[in-house]
Amino acid sequence: MRVVGIDCGSQCTGYGVIDSDGRRHQLVRVGVIRTSAKELFSARLRTIHSRLQEIIAEARPDAVAVEGIFAGANVRTALQLAHVRGVALLAAAEAGVPVGEYSPLEVKGSVVGYGRATKEQVQMMVTSLLRLEEKPKPFDASDALAVAICHSVRSATAAKLARPGKAAGKGASR
């Protein structure tokens, strides 16, 4: 499964593309989309949308995964992030790619095993899980890869549970 993970930000939106079977993950591409705070917010949204369209078209993913808004963010920041998430969801919808949405707690729990992990811990685990020689930088990039890993792990688990005879208790020996 190929997944594009997106960590939304109005000045720096991280993206990461991985191939994964749910257990083993391989980096395809990682980076950030930078915009200037001096630009009109609408122009920044257009830039982010346009670049995400290009990334999705080039990667041809099976899914896009987007991180939700951190509940502790101030109102202005939360509204701006909501707009960025909107253009990310729109880019995926325009490409006809299904979207998974995960809270920061879910992403950190899936990747680190602890929902309150630091950005450094997430970065370290992403580096380890993808068997990278260098840490993906900045944190927006490693966070985007964590979102993609979270989606691939959760999708693989859901697929296993959906198979007949794999439900809890069925086929278990006593």
Topology at a glance:
Blueprint: E1 2-7, E2 12-20, E3 25-34, H1 41-59, E4 63-67, H2 75-95, E5 99-102, H3 104-111, H4 119-129, H5 139-162
Parallel strand pairs: 1-4, 4-5
Antiparallel strand pairs: 1-2, 2-3
Helix pairs in contact: 1-2, 3-5, 4-5
Task: Give a brief outline of the structure.
This protein is an alpha/beta fold.
Question: Could you describe the 3D structure shown?
Answer:
With 174 residues, the chain is α/β, with parallel strands linked by helices. It has a single domain (2-162), classed as Ribonuclease H-like superfamily/Ribonuclease H (Nucleotidyltransferase, domain 5, 2-Layer Sandwich). The protein has five helices and five strands, in the order βββαβαβααα. Strands 3-2-1-4-5 form a five-stranded mixed beta sheet, with helices on both faces. The longest helix is centred in the C-terminal third of the chain and has 24 residues, at 139-162. The radius of gyration is 17 Å and the shape is globular. Mean pLDDT is 92; it is low at 169-174.
Question: What is the first-to-last residue Cα distance?
Answer: 35 Å
The CATH H-level superfamily is Ribonuclease H-like superfamily/Ribonuclease H
Mean pLDDT across the residues is: 92
Number of strands: 5
CATH classification, class level: Alpha Beta
What's the CATH topology label? Nucleotidyltransferase, domain 5
Strand order of the largest sheet: 3-2-1-4-5
Give the % helix. 40-55%
Uncertain regions: pLDDT < 50 for 5+ in a row? 169-174
The gross shape turns out to be globular
Supply the helix-strand structural class.
alpha/beta
Major sheet details? 5 strands, mixed
Number of helices: 5
**Rg over CA atoms:** 17 Å
How many separate structural domains? Answer: 1
- By oligomeric state, this entry counts as single chain
Any guess at the CATH architecture?
Answer: 2-Layer Sandwich
Helix and strand run: EEEHEHEHHH
The share of residues in extended strands comes to 15-25%
